[in-house]
Write a structure and sequence with these properties.
homodimer; 167 residues; alpha+beta; Arc Repressor Mutant, subunit A; Alpha-Beta Plaits; 4-stranded antiparallel sheet; DNA-binding; Lrp/AsnC family leucine-responsive transcriptional regulator (chains A, B); AsnC-type_HTH_dom (chains A, B)
DNA sequence: TTTGAAACGGAACATTATTCTATACTGATA
DNA sequence: TATCAGTATAGAATAATGTTCCGTTTCAAA
């Protein structure tokens, strides 16, 4: 295993130029991060060294943010996905920061986006079932004091879900 | 690097029971898939062998679906995320399948969810900027013949985004 | 207490990542 | 055109890691 990893913590901000070979490497690693450097090299008609160096540079530049194992939610008894839309009463900086701090602390919240439109935030919540979502709603969201309005949209099936952003 | 990988293609459906050690392994690999088996073993007070075997079983059972390199969209000039809500004219099986096939073929579409509520689908679209989204809208979505209504919600900032589902 | 299956530890082995050095390439300059 | 500096590359050597093997332990059922 390469130890190029551990890119998670640092917020590298440098910008680097990516050529076609870098893009090709990214596309392959997005699909299978365990692909060996030699296999990557073979696909790109290169030797191991340049591929290794390119990956290292992209990790340090923050292009590759993380290597993650993707777990199937249904296999660990988290079969229900809910999109939860929230608008706040107070929109001041202080109130917003407080809300964000609270929301991000909930492990059920996989994603929290600040959005345009009638709502302020969209949460993607992953739970066991409807009962678990109800409890999340009452015991966690219900405890927050700055929520004006809330709306839940339930995910019936996942048609497509990818982490690939390079194309 | 372990070659336990390549879990992507197979839809393993077997269900296996996970104990606390398996959960601990999953949590660590969700954060850093490059962590070595020996490091994992040290954190769990185990030797390498049982950790290796547990990972292999979870891969074969489909609990670990994939190992992915996560790329920062802004670093590859894909800075705009849009949530695109779509309702169809025809909801028959044939029409639905056709729509799904077309939608999933667009690389800009990172995610497509079949949802409850007034819309049928939510798309998460990742593009360079507003102009690129406009072109996606006109040239790709605009070519589909089964769309009744459409609404775009723009992501202003990402407060939280994780792939961790194990907790 | 006995037995069998599963989990485990430690060492040996196989594969891969990583480093090192020399060479080939590229673009700019004179 | 010739020369130079910087970068990218290949190939071999080394270090680190994944993977297998085998004997031992654990633990629950009989």
């Amino acid at each position: 295993m390469n130890n190029l990893g551990n890119t998670k913590k640092d917020n590298a901000t440098e910008n680097i130029a990516l050529d076609e070979k870098d893009i090709a490497i990214l596309q392959l690693l997005e699909e299978d991060a365990k692909m060996t450097i030699r296999d990557l090299a073979a696909k790109l008609n290169l030797s191991a060294t340049p591929v290794y160096e390119r990956i290292r540079k992209m990790e340090q530049a923050g292009v590759i943010r993380q290597y993650a194992a993707i777990v199937d939610p249904s296999k660990i008894d988290k079969a229900l996905t809910v999109l939860c839309y929230i608008s706040l009463k107070e929109h001041g900086k202080k109130a917003g920061t407080k809300f964000i701090k609270e929301i991000t602390s909930f492990p059920e919240v996989m994603e929290c986006l600040n959005i345009s439109g009638q709502f302020d935030f969209m949460l993607k919540v992953q739970v066991k079932d409807m009962l678990a979502y109800h409890e999340f709603n009452v015991n966690k969201l219900g405890e927050l004091d700055n929520i004006r309005h809330m709306e839940s949209v339930f995910v019936m099936s996942v048609i497509k879900a990818t982490h690939r952003v390079v194309y």
